[in-house]
Each structure stands twice: as C-alpha cells, then as structure tokens.
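Incident log, structure service

09:12 report received: a user says their structure output differs between two submissions of the same chain.
09:20 pulled the input from the user's history:
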Amino acid sequence: MSTRESTHTGHGPRLTKADGSAIRVLVVDDEPTLTDLLSMALRYEGWEVRTAGEGRQALTIAREFRPDAIVLDIMLPDIDGLQVLQRVRADGYETPVLFLTAKDSLDDRIAGLTAGGDDYVTKPFSLEEVVARLRGLIRRSTLAVADSTDPRITVGDLTLDEDSYEVFRDGDAIELTATEFELLRFLMRNPRRVLSKAQILDRVWSYDFGGKSSVVEIYISYLRKKIDAGRNPMIHTVRGAGYMLKTA
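09:34 re-ran on a clean worker, output below:
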C-alpha cells in the first residue's frame, strides 16, 4: 500500500492511499468523550474512523475494518492494549499503532514496542499531536517505492534514508521516533539555514500549533541526545532566531 498527498484545508497535505481511497483509523479508548474528539479530528483529515471502547470489541472491528493505523489506549476494561496489539500481530497485520498512556505508566514493554516502529503519546495530549504522530506513522508504514532520486540525505557524517527510515551518524545506527525523524529530515534538507520555531512547527507538525513552541525545544533536545551525544554537535541554537544543522 502506498500513499499520496493532495492539498486540503486541514492540517497540511491530505494523506490518502495510492488509489485515492481514505486512510482508515481505529480509535480504541474507554472514554467516549476522548474517542469522539479524536474521531472528529481524524475525520477532519479526510480519514475514515471507527471506534471501540474495549479490547475484544477492537479486535472484532479490526478484522472487519482492516485499519491502516490504530490509536490504542493501554488501559482498557477487559484486555489491555498490549494484548490487543499482540492479537492484531498474531492475525498477521503489521498495522502501525499509536499508544495512549498515562504519564506514570510508561513501562519497558511500551518502550520496546515503540522501538519497533510504533509510537506513543502520554495523556493529557493535544489532538494536534495525535494527528501529527499518526501522519508520521502512516507515511512511514505506507511509503511507496521511491522515484529515481537518491533517497539519502547526507550532511557531514550524518546520513538519513527517506525510504528505509534509517539514520546513521559516523556509521552508527540511530533509532528515532516518527516525529524525531520528520524534524531531522527538515533540518537536513536545509543545512546551514536558520529555521525558526514557527517554520519547524508548520513543516514538521503540519498545523498551526497556536504558539506552543515549547514542543520544538523538547524535540530538539530529544534529537540532540541521539544525534550529538558524545560527538561534535551538529544541531545549533541561534538565539532569538531558531535552530540550524551544520557540521562542526
């Protein structure tokens, strides 16, 4: 399956499947208010949405609906979200999953699962963040075969592959979440150029963040820990202006 993008009035280019049909998302949470809000935000993206309040109900819907992505709360009244994921995987579906988790319950199992390509957000979260993370997961899981241009971007000893979603610094593989990857890609496509927080929010999160630019600082700090730790720093802060990626 592949995706294509066409413009619309939502949070950036509309994601659809290669045949033009709508992306399908299953939202699983036992809080009806939350599933209603998420459904509204995802339908605004032009996506088809189904909801479930329990894990077993989610499995029944998943088998019939065959979603392209699942938003999955860890704490459910019957079986937990991790069991739901195991059963979805056992059915042979590699559907990407965005976990919803309480801040104090993020454990090693979720960290291990998200390292395999899935992602998570902690409650409370903004709807915009969920949409942005889902867009990243869907793009990443459904990338079409690249055209003839080289999918690799290289700046100094840092290499990013847009097809395989692999990142290497001086030959060492670096694991990034979908959002971190999008942020690094934007920086690497604009080396030695100062990018403002507003530009980064617009490009990486694909919507008007309403001034919550602290999310950029948070993700820049995540990237620095992974890209620059123990090496010559490549991600530089330009005071009062933004950020720049350049070789030492």
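09:41 both user submissions now match this output. Likely a transient worker issue. Closing.
09:42 reviewer note: The CA atoms of residues 198 and 213 lie 7 Å apart. The chain has a mean pLDDT of 81.
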